[in-house]
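Agenda item 2: adenosine-5'-triphosphate complex prediction
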Amino acid sequence: MRTRLLMSDQTLFRSIDVFEIDYAPEFFNYRESQLKDLAYQIRPALEGGRALSAICRGLPGTGKTTSVLRIFAELEQTTKKILPVYVNCQNDRTKYMVFSRIYAAIVGHAPARTGISIRSVMDAIGGALQRQEKSLIVCLDDANLLHYNNTLGDVVNSLLRLHQDYPGARAAVFATVSDMNLDLASDLSKWVLSPFRPSDIYFPPYDADEIRGILQDRIRIGLYPGVFSVQMLDRIVEQTMESGDVRVGLDLVKRAVLNAECAARTEVIEEDITKAYEQAKHIHLACTIRALSTDERLLLQRIAELSQEQSGPLVSGAIYGRVEETPKVGYTVFSRQLRKLDSLRLVDLIRVQAGGRTSEVALRYEPEKVVQICGKRGIAEE
Ligand SMILES: Nc1ncnc2c1ncn2[C@@H]1O[C@H](COP(=O)(O)OP(=O)(O)OP(=O)(O)O)[C@@H](O)[C@H]1O
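Presented output:
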């Protein structure tokens, strides 16, 4: 008799959607003050003016996107005065693509792929805002990606100065940024900053109790009772705290339950979690590396190679001396790149001397895996 591999009418999931990355959570706690701050920025637009711009800053998976989308959903349900438009800069990385996304939200379809200039797209947007007397708020999600392409300043400037060509057209920008070292105030030109003047809204990493609370809510909705014990949840919380990204925990819960289902068990056990961690840990690493700029990726790769070559601790000055890229970046830029790798929890920086510039650099992942993923093929394969 043939074994049926894809058969099972028994599942431990009440709703597997609850663990998907695009699921809009029913319960969204621990971000009340950030939601209040965002609402404050929007108030002037509700009174017929222009919303205030904001930068939502925080490490990956700290709830920035979800907060903005929640506020946008509420706006869509409650007012016609404001047009909220969400742009994912992972997909839309050029000025034309960003403006096409806004055009589509206003007109109902994307502009033709060829033969339409960005000027015509902006004319359509500006004209529609004038006619409809709506205030536009654009969320540039992962705006740091536009910044690395030198596009952010131009996009923000064109949006916030729309009123100069189309009197009465009002726009504001909510940018989300996961690069904690990006200092837009000093990186963007005064010409852009003058109309932008964003408020900074900070999203701190969740602590262990908050992560436990978030995962508990999902488990309650998404799984049948008794599938996930408190002890097993503690194991997942521990693993999630290593990256600080809620997505890691959600992914681990889902995989652990799938592993239990495969073994025809009705409860998740330690072994399911260990296996889930082995399956998932490199996916998180690959996602984080994919978001790095080319220079940062090369630096990480160099650190991994040096970790393979030498057994003792790596020191920042020595790493700088061994960076082979040309033109070589200055030490200040190099230090900034190291701090970013630290903030993304790819490396640990340990200050050797208080106040000094030298740090020990410890890679948080296996060097072989990092070298493999940093190579283009590795990133595509993960
Ligand atoms: N307070 C929360 N309650 C419930 N779910 C949450 C909470 N915070 C984050 N999440 C979930 O974690 C995942 C990541 O959240 P989100 O995309 O909002 O983070 P982010 O800070 O925008 O990340 P990135 O910088 O990588 O884009 C989503 O699936 C979201 O539903």
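Discussion summary: The chain has 18 helices and eight strands.
Owner for follow-up: CH.
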